[in-house]
UniProtKB/TrEMBL annotation:
This is Enoyl-CoA hydratase. The keyword Transmembrane does not apply. SUPFAM superfamilies: ClpP/crotonase. The lineage of its organism: Bacteria, Bacillati, Bacillota, Bacilli, Bacillales. Pfam families: ECH_1. It comes from Thalassobacillus devorans.
Length: 258
């Protein structure tokens, strides 16, 4: 890993922090590569139950790096760039563990896309989410249209995107996009929020994330079949047996992820 990202494991939390503050953590090819490597590293760490994505400096992420986009000279290069940077959102969505976005300053453009790819968003009350794509003649990318439309009504999504709206954290919270707001320490708020993940059975969280993220991918019959197979598997786990025993013993369960 190099200094474009920093990784810190705190309890069962793995912090992945974008460290390009001079560019407001704009997504260059190099930063995307280091973030994907960092996500793989934290995903493979058995002690980590939840990954927290944050940004160093004044803002979470200012979006795509304009300099990187200016270097694109052909349609084939443009296609490769879009596919490459979009793979970061896909990795966040497909990773087995819950990912929390910790937002301060601006999450603009592709930065908003990354936040929406995460499972939860914790934001400073004065943070802002910018949908600036139409100002430069583009549609949102990195999965933003899909992720936003899953959270707000279609007319709201269309209005926000086509008007290049800047959404305040308060408005995003009211619309159900942001899980929690804080005027205090973002670190403390994230730590408090993630307790239920750190103390819970991560094998269950893995399947909950999968089922919800793929809820529209299958027919009703296939969905129930998948759910039944997963439940059958979970009924055989240590964590299920520990949860039942703790229930009868009137104590807190100690899950081990197996």
């Amino acid at each position: 890993m190099n200094d474009l990202v920093s990784i810190h494991v705190d309890g069962h939390k793995g912090w992945l922090t974008m460290n390009r503050p001079d560019k407001l953590n704009a997504l260059s090819r190099e930063l995307v590569a280091e973030m994907k490597n960092g996500l793989d590293q934290l995903s493979e760490n058995e002690n980590v139950k939840v990954i927290v994505l944050s940004g160093e400096g004044k803002s979470f992420c200012a979006g795509g790096d304009i300099a990187s986009m200016n270097d694109i000279a052909s349609s084939s290069e443009a296609a490769k760039w879009v596919e490459y940077v979009s793979s970061l959102s896909r990795k966040i969505l497909e990773i087995d563990k819950y990912v929390v976005a910790a937002i301060h300053g601006y999450a603009a453009g592709a930065g908003f896309s990354l936040a929406l790819a995460c499972d939860f968003i914790i934001a400073k009350k004065d943070a802002k989410f910018a949908l600036s794509f139409s100002n430069i003649g583009l549609i949102p990318d990195l999965g933003l249209i899909r992720s936003l439309s899953e959270r707000v009504p279609s007319p709201i999504a269309k209005e926000w995107i086509s008007s290049s709206k800047i959404v305040t954290a308060v408005e995003a919270h009211e619309q159900g996009i942001v899980n929690r707001l804080t005027e205090g320490s973002l670190y403390d708020e994230v730590t408090d929020f993630t307790k239920f993940i750190e103390e819970g059975p991560n094998v269950v969280n893995k399947y909950v994330k999968f089922l919800i993220n793929h809820i529209d991918d299958a027919s009703l019959d296939n969905y129930f079949m998948t759910e039944n197979i997963i439940q059958t598997t979970l009924l055989q786990t240590y964590d299920h047996k520990e949860g039942v025993q703790a229930f009868f013993e009137k104590r807190k369960p100690h899950f081990q992820g197996r």
